[in-house]
Amino acid sequence: MTSDGQSVRDDGLPEFVVDSNALSRAFSVARRAHSEQTRGGHGRPYLEHPTQVAELLRHQGYDEDVCVAGLLHDVVEKSGVTVGEVREGFGPRVAVLVAALTEDATIEDWERRKSALRESAVRSGTEGVAIYIADKLANLHDWRAVYSEVGERSVGSAAPTTTRWPSRSSTPSRPS
User: Is residue 14 within 8 Å of residue 26, measured between CB atoms?
Assistant: First the structure.
């Protein structure tokens, strides 16, 4: 069992990938790509995140290709794996989904980059949106788990402050 409750065998494979050659191969690619990476500065293995994304998709009934893309959704952005390698190993459908969920590193502004990613997910169709949503749900789960372990320290500078919230006086009033 991983720290986020995923069932894992003695060989490290999550139970849900065992019966699928494509999912097992995708897990191996993700494991290599994220081998030295951790999330959020709290030492959690990065691999738990894409595994959780793929498992969320599987629980919602998405097919093998979508679950594979969920496992691989961060490998291009976070490692040396290319979209071409994803296409070669897993086919064009998976590659298109992974590409749609990969941030455009040429966009420097964080808000514009995130907006472009959302638009790309929407353009890729229902399956791309599902992976995007599973990614966000997994992120929320991670925040909740870290918060339960370390409390307010986990929030740090990301916490809303009175200087970041709009003042009530700046909110447009409703007509009576």
Answer: no
Domain that holds residue 131: 15-144
User: Rounded mean pLDDT of 163-168?
Assistant: 48
Strands 38-39, 44-45: parallel, antiparallel or unpaired by DSSP? antiparallel
- Rounded CA separation 102/70 (Å): 11
Q: Is residue 47 part of a domain?
A: yes
Q: Does residue 129 fall inside a structural domain?
A: yes
Please list the residues that pair with 8 across neighbouring strands. Answer: 14
CATH of the domain at 62: 1.10.3210.10
Cβ within 8 Å of residue 118, ≥6 positions away: 132
pLDDT in tens, 18-50: 889 999 999 999 999 999 888 766 678 889 999
Cβ neighbours for 53, distance < 8 A, ≥ 6 positions apart: 70, 71, 73, 131, 134, 135, 138
158: in domain: no
Mean pLDDT of all residues belonging to the chain: 83
Residue 49: phi and psi, rounded to 5, are: -65, -60
Q: Is residue 79 part of a domain?
A: yes
Q: Please state the pTM of the whole predicted model.
A: 0.78
Task: Return the H-helix or E-strand segment holding 44.
Answer: strand 44-45
Q: Which of 37-41, 59-63, 83-87 has the lowest mean pLDDT?
A: 37-41
